Every structure is written in structure tokens, then in C-alpha cells.
Structure to design on (378 residues):
């Protein structure tokens, strides 16, 4: 394979998720790692030596070097915005880890910097590649299950200990992480909600701050959604439950679709629609659904496979051979929904979507200021 058939990639960040992406690069023939970057020079040097590439300690220096045609941003998410904007303005292709940014306004700034539409700007969403979820998407998009009636998503299997939150001074603080479970653990689930069922038109949420841990950000959330067609939804997540659950239920006119633990797909299928039974059925009529266990295949390393598929699709798009799995506009949708949940709690009322990005940003900035350590204000 010639160099023209390989995407020249630099990875910015060398932490846990970056290490997983580095493993993906080794298995993709159409991706060539040319550099790594981290503000921690020792960490950057260590990874660079291991992979035989150049180390940078500042993303601007990396960009100016012209060594890479694309960057993968795998830093703490509060740095995603500035790095992406600098890379896009320099004409690079960009793949960002989730979340795309902390706020919708920052997402809009990133999209505004993406002026050259020949450059690929995408976001990593692992769950979209899981076989059970991909099949669910196929079934819903086909229309054979009819209109969605109700959505129920439970993601409470994110137990985190106090030791976890104490492992980094930036963790669980508004000013340095931008939130808790909504921006750290659950961007993938929130993306699944909008990917499978669409973006709601209204959200009301109760976010509990420090409900289970001594932290300032949300660690427990219950949200209700309303959709344009009248459908409703419930989303529940927490980092304080054990055991937790990971379950998605989507009720449609022709049946109930259930995904357990992101890997098991079941359909209770109706012969006729709920609407037909309600309007024409007798007093005790019921559609009496039958159960369909849908084989979706399995893989030993779903997470590693998901990262490879995301990076592979991005690289092929850069090389002009396809589309990324999730363009940046898709990345903003999950950020907007997370912002709406937090905003709803802060103002104690339902929030209509599209979200007023400036109004939320002003309230979010105030939240950061109110929780800023006293020594930082002096």
C-alpha cells in the first residue's frame, strides 16, 4: 500500500482512550501514525518511542509541522474545542472523541471553523457499531415497525467510587470537566437516543448534584422527552447504583424492541398496529405479539472493534472512499440534549429544542463561577 493510500494521522493525547486508539492504528493498513502529542512531555516521549514516531508537546506545534493530514483528539474533553478549531482552520481532517464539546455553543464554534467541507470532521460514537444496536437502527429506519410510541433508556451500570473521582483534580468539577455522568459516562447513550429515535422537541430533567458522592456535578439524572409525533421517552442514568442496568426499550405501533446490555436484541412483534386494535378491536382484543430473538452476531472485543470501525471509516472518508460513522453535526445533537437536561434542572422547567445555546452558556458560566475554588478567585 502506497503512502497516498494511507491517511497520515497524529493522535493528540496519550491517556487511556488514546492507548486504545493506538492499538486500532496497528491493525489498520490504511492508517499511518506519524506523530503523537501531549502536554506531558514524558508521556508523549514514551508513546512516541514505543511507536517510532515524533513527539509534540503542544498541539499548535504539531499542526504547524504539516506532518499529519488528520488528527484524532483524545484529550480530556474540555480541550476538544480549541484543538479542533485550530486543526480545522489549518485545513486538517479531525476526528474527536466524545463528547464533541461540553456545551452547544462550543460545538457551534467548532462547526463554524469547518469552512472547508472537503475536510472530514467527525466524532467517535462506539455504540453505533455494536451489532444489536446497528440492527435495531436498521429495523426502525425500515419503517416496518411503524411509528415510535415510547422510548425508555436506562443506563445505571456506571458505578463510580470516590476513589475514581479523586483520581484527578479535574474530575467532577464544572470548571474543569463541565459536568458529571451526562458529559463523561453517557454521551454514547444520549447519542443512541437521538440516533435511534430522533432528537426530542422538549426535555424536562431532574439532575441530582453529588447525590451519591462528595462532588459538585450531577451523578444521578432522570429525564423525560417529548417528540414531534407525540411520542414520549424516559432516560435514567447514575454513577451511584449497584447493580445497575443497561436497557433500551422502544415501543412502536408494530411491537416492542428491547436491547439488553447493548448486545441482546429482542422484538415482541404485533400482527396489526396498536392504533388498529384500539380503533377497531372488541372490548378485550389484544394484538397478542410473538417473540422474535434476533441473531446479531458477537465479537470478543466489542469496544476495540468499535474503535477500529470508527477510525477506519474516518480514514476511508479522508481518502475519498466513504463516509464517517458520525459527522460533527451528529456530535452536537448529544451535547445539546445533555445541555438541555442540565438547563431544565437549573431553571426547574421543561426546555424546548433546539436549545438556546447562548442562554444555556450564560447559565453554565455562572455555575462554573459559583463553584470556583476561593483560591482561584484571588
Amino acid at each position: 500500500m502506497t503512502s497516498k493510500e494511507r491517511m497520515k494521522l497524529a493522535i493528540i493525547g496519550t491517556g487511556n482512550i488514546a492507548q486504545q486508539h493506538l492499538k486500532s492504528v496497528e491493525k489498520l493498513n490504511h492508517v499511518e501514525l506519524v506523530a503523537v502529542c501531549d502536554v506531558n512531555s514524558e508521556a508523549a516521549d514514551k508513546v512516541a518511542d514505543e511507536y517510532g514516531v515524533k513527539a509534540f508537546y503542544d498541539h499548535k506545534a504539531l499542526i504547524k509541522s504539516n506532518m499529519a493530514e488528520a488528527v484524532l483528539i483524545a484529550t480530556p474533553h474540555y480541550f476538544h474545542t480549541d484543538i479542533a478549531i485550530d486543526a480545522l482552520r489549518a485545513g486538517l481532517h479531525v476526528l474527536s472523541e466524545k463528547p464533541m464539546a461540553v456545551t452547544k455553543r462550543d460545538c457551534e464554534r467548532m462547526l463554524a471553523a469547518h469552512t472547508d467541507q472537503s475536510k472530514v470532521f467527525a466524532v467517535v460514537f462506539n455504540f453505533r457499531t455494536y451489532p444489536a444496536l446497528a440492527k435495531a437502527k436498521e429495523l426502525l429506519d425500515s419503517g416496518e415497525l411503524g411509528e415510535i410510541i415510547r422510548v425508555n433508556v436506562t443506563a445505571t451500570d456506571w458505578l463510580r467510587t470516590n476513589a475514581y473521582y479523586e483520581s484527578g483534580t479535574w474530575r467532577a468539577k464544572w470548571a474543569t470537566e463541565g459536568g458529571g455522568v451526562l458529559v463523561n459516562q453517557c454521551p454514547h447513550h444520549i447519542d443512541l437516543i437521538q440516533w435511534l429515535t430522533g432528537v426530542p422537541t422538549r426535555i424536562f430533567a431532574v439532575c441530582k448534584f453529588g447525590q451519591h458522592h462528595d462532588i459538585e456535578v450531577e451523578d444521578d439524572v432522570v429525564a423525560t422527552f417529548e417528540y414531534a409525533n407525540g411520542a414520549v421517552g424516559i432516560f435514567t442514568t447514575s454513577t451511584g447504583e449497584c447493580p445497575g442496568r443497561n436497557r433500551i426499550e422502544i415501543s412502536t405501533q408494530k411491537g416492542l424492541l428491547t436491547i439488553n446490555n447493548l448486545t441482546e436484541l429482542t422484538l415482541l412483534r404485533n400482527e396489526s398496529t396498536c392504533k388498529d386494535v384500539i380503533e377497531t378491536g372488541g372490548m378485550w382484543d389484544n394484538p397478542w405479539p410473538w417473540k422474535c430473538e434476533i441473531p446479531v452476531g458477537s465479537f470478543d472485543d466489542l469496544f476495540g472493534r468499535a474503535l477500529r470501525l470508527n477510525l477506519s471509516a474516518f480514514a476511508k472518508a479522508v481518502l475519498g472512499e466513504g463516509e464517517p460513522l458520525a459527522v460533527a453535526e451528529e456530535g452536537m445533537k448529544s451535547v445539546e440534549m445533555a445541555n438541555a437536561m442540565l438547563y431544565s434542572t437549573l431553571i426547574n422547567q421543561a426546555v424546548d429544542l433546539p436549545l438556546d445555546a447562548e442562554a444555556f452558556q450564560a447559565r453554565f458560566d455562572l455555575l462554573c463561577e459559583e463553584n470556583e475554588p476561593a483560591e482561584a478567585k484571588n
Notes: The longest strand covers residues 218-226. The chain has two domains: 3-127+303-324, 128-299+334-370. Residues 204 and 349 are 6 Å apart (CA to CA).
